[in-house]
Amino acid sequence: MSTILVTGASGQLGQLVLKALENSPHTVIAASREPSKLNTSFATRKADFDQPDTLVETFAGVDRVLIISTDALAVPGQRLKQHTAAIEAAKIVGVQHLVYTSLPNAEPGNKISFAPDHYGTEQAIKASGIAHTILRNNWYIENLMMSLPHALESGQFYTSAPEGRVAYVARQDAARAAAAALSDAPGGTFTVTGPEALTYGDVVALANDITGKSVNLIPLTDEQFGGGLKAAGLPDFVADMLTSAETAIRAGQLDGVTDTLQTLTGQAPKTVREVLTALLKAK
Predict the structure, then answer these.
(1) What is the spatial distance between Cα 221 and Cα 162, in angstroms, rounded to a whole number?
(2) What is the pLDDT of residues 128-170, one digit of tens each?
(3) How high is the pLDDT of residue 283?
(4) What SUPFAM superfamilies has UniProt attached to this entry (predicted)?
(5) pLDDT value at position 222?
(6) Is residue 157 within 8 Å of 200, Cβ to Cβ?
(7) pLDDT value of residue 281
(8) Domain-wise residue ranges, the chain
(9) I need a surface site. Which of 32, 188, 247, 265 has the fewest CB within 10 A?
């Protein structure tokens, strides 16, 4: 059996990965910047990617590490610096396998503002010589809840990518894929998606059907979309990131559907309808 460590274990994805590993025969360690906040039966360790000198101790004695991409998006380059520090520490202590959560089509040319962080991390992992599994997770279905509740109240859903499609994946399914990758250590790069690629029109139609409400799709330019987000009070870097995602959706960079979940976990992924029904009924 191997010793597995999950970074970012207090985050939304990290918590779900720990849950998926509850019956694992492997030794599991949950790591977080603030381990005291972890509510888990697993052993815990402190993992602060902004303190690279401490990461060698964090990863000591560990065979497999899941690096969940951090949320350090406000300062350009910070996230890649964090990830690189983790990879270097893993190499120093002799970690045998790295699993990393990336983005579909992360190569240069991806329109999403933080794609270079992911591609740079992928390249650093490959250059490290450590065996690895790269999981290119598509947009989480749960992210739709950033805009759907307001749209259901106002009757209007704004987008600058009305025709683009996204192969949304449930966060829980992405967690199951990560747990499987940690447990079985398959090598290579996998794009993790749901079973279908939907337009925003499809999503709005589902929300209307689930709730009985009537929301209309309002197409905007990127400038109008980003300006509206900033006017609503979102920080510029967040508004720019969300606008860049709309651009990527229009370019078809998130529309590929794969069978990765079935391959890695032996189970079919959840549909957008299944997840949205649970989320919207809970509101």
Answers:
(1) 10
(2) 999 999 999 999 999 999 999 999 999 999 999 999 999 999 9
(3) 67
(4) NAD(P)-binding Rossmann-fold domains (SSF51735)
(5) 98
(6) yes
(7) 86
(8) 3-138+171-192+256-269
(9) 188
C-alpha–C-alpha distance, residues 204 and 59, integer Å: 44
Tens digit of pLDDT for each residue in 226-238? Answer: 999 999 999 999 9
Distance from the first to the final alpha carbon of the chain: 42
**Polymer length in residues for the chain:** 283
Count of CB atoms within 10 A of residue 233's CB?
8
Q: In this structure, are residues 98 and 127 in contact, taking their beta carbons and an 8 Å threshold?
A: no
* Whole-angstrom distance, CA of residue 233 vs CA of residue 228: 9
Q: How far is CA 202 from CA 163, 199, 254, in A?
A: 10, 5, 15
Q: For the domain bounded by 3-138+171-192+256-269, which CATH number is listed?
A: 3.40.50.720
pTM (2 decimals)? 0.96
DSSP one-letter string for 142-160 = GGGGGTHHHHHHHSEEEES
Q: How many CB atoms lie within 10 A of CB 12?
A: 13
Residue type for 26, please?
H
pLDDT tens figures, 61-101: 999 999 999 999 888 899 999 999 999 999 999 999 999 99
Where helices occur in the chain by DSSP H, the ranges are 12-20, 52-59, 78-93, 115-128, 148-154, 171-184, 200-211, 222-231, 236-250, 260-265, 272-281
- Report the C-alpha gap between 101 and 47 in whole angstroms: 17
CB 248 within 8 A of CB 110: yes
In this structure, which long-range contacts are made by residues 46-49, counting pairs with CB atoms below 8 Å and at least 24 apart in sequence?
47/5, 47/7, 47/8, 47/86, 49/7, 49/82, 49/83, 49/85, 49/86
Q: Which residues pair with 27 in a beta bridge?
A: 3
| 132 phi/psi in degrees, rounded to 5 | -155, 160
